[in-house]
Amino acid sequence: MYEPYPTPDLARDHKKFRYSSLWTFAKQDLRLLVFLLVIGGFIGLGVGYFWVGLCIAFSIFFAFQLRSLYLVNEWISNRPYEAPPNLDGIWGALLFNVYRAQRQERVVQAEMVGLIDRAQSSLVALAEAVVLTDELHQIEWWNPAAEKLLGIQPLDRGRNLLTIIRQPSFIDYFNHIDKSPDGIKIKSSVFEEHYVQIKLTRFGSESRLLLAYDVTRIHNLEQMRKDFVDNISHELRTPLTVLSGYIETFTDQEDLNPRWKRAFDQMHSQTRRMNALVNDLLLLSRLEGNKQIAKNQIIEMPSLMNQLFDDAQAYNVDYGHTLNLDIDSHCDLIGSDTELASAFSNLITNAIKYTPKGGTVTIGWHDDGEHGYFTVQDTGIGIDPKHLPRLTERFYRVDSARSRQTGGTGLGLAIVKHVLMQHAAYLEVESKENQGSTFKVVFPKERLYNPDESLNSFEL
Ligand code: ADP
User: Fold this and answer.
1) Of 85, 276, 298, 320, which cross-links 71 as Cys (Cβ 3.0–4.6 Å)?
2) Residue 95 — very low, low, confident or very high, per pLDDT cuts 50/70/90?
3) How far does the centroid of ligand 1 lie from the alpha carbon of residue 207, in Å?
4) With a 6 A CB cut-off, is 233 part of the ligand 1 pocket?
5) Which CATH class is domain 126-214?
6) Cα–Cα distances in Å, from 455 out to 165, 332, 369, 370, 451?
């Protein structure tokens, strides 16, 4: 067992002093004083110098006290970790209490040191990088994995972490931890083509704990999946265009044998579906890659809403719903017009598709000063609440047969989710089976642009 200091027989000593009050120890001193005075008095009387005898006795007592004081001082100054000198009386009690308090403190200290040692050695053994920074973002401590993964050197102690990991995405995350609860993935600055997932936790006032691990394998697998879908969609595009071109030509022929007409009609609708699927897959992969998307255009909402409403009316011809347009905001949106228009249009066509004939669909745009709300409300078939959490997954359908029947690809809401993510917006869905659904897109204030406020500026 770890035993850094000598152990006196505390139990015994404790017993000795346990029930003793200060008076008990003072009594020992008094007894000594009385004893010396009696002896001194008698001897003084015997030789005819009573008072001198008493003075000498008192001086001897005083010398005893001085010796005790000297021993106490010597122990405290030179040997505080050793057992205290064995003294009687008040000095002994004082020494014992000081020593006992000191020992208890040392035991607690040793326990704490042991605990810290264990915590530290487990952090050192971790394959994940761990870095601690103080309130000024200066590096206080890190483990060997942090040296390997993040390139932190012994000389970096006390340096600002942001001068070592300098990627803009990391700096942004460091300053706004709450925006990315799952952390962020960055390219490793130590190994080429390596990726590191970083998660920060704030503690104390402004100190931070950084955890990082290598996610290169997962990143590569994810990339392979994306590339595969991307490539296959591109490869399918050309043959599909050729096929649908021919099929359309044949379908349009007036002298087409009626026996073939049905087959060609079906081929036509299936190639259209495949085309839609390929286009959605390509759009999704472009959105995931975050490529070439301008997200800082000012989108005039009244004109976009009217455009969406006209398109909805054209699509609604076969359904005969009542369509309403409800605009109650002067704000425009800042973002990518094509992407947002496509996301909004997905929600509107879904509302029309999943509402039995003769229903009502209302398209709305509102704001409350803090958020902007694009809403699509329908009186359609609704969605069982158990499906809501998975609704924006790729190819997730509540009712596959119905979705295929309506020409759906199963990718519409996944696209909506990605477009919204890129605009720091999110989707809220409220639905009751057989009563209808409301899909609400919530935009943050930074995405709203009020043309009436001339000083309105944006930097995104
Ligand atoms: P799809 O192409 O199949 O419509 P989406 O991703 O657009 O794919 O939608 C996913 C599923 O969510 C749909 O299959 C449908 O079951 C359900 N859904 C979407 N919008 C509505 C709505 N307005 N009313 C009822 N169900 C809906």
Assistant:
1) 85
2) confident
3) 45
4) no
5) alpha beta
6) 36, 15, 16, 17, 9
